[in-house]
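Record type: monomer structure entry
Structure origin: computed from sequence
Chain ID: A
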Amino acid sequence: MGREIEGTFIFDGGAAARGFALNAMCYSFNDAANRAAFLADEQGYCDRFGLTGEQREAVASRDVLAMLRAGGNIYYLAKLAGILGLSVQDLGAQQTGVTVEAFKQRLLDAGRSARHG
């Protein structure tokens, strides 16, 4: 059994099936018109893709970890995160359970130790 990493979720066949609607919606954001439609009517757009209650709540609360638990794939969720104004650092902070500033500091510290290691 592999080691578990906090804030990560295995994306397997079950997760793919569970997250199909959410991931399909996020994939649709490749089109600028779809991004605009989502921003204009978020709930209506979620209806269009048939998101589950769990997925809708995760999107409404901007909770990326909940989206991952609901079967979201981080590569598709990154498209939604961009629309919601969330940066990669915001996502990393949510995944590790620290503030954005603490997450940025972790990245800087890791970079320093890699250069001097």
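Annotation 1: The chain has nine helices and no strands.
Annotation 2: The CA atoms of residues 16 and 71 lie 6 Å apart.
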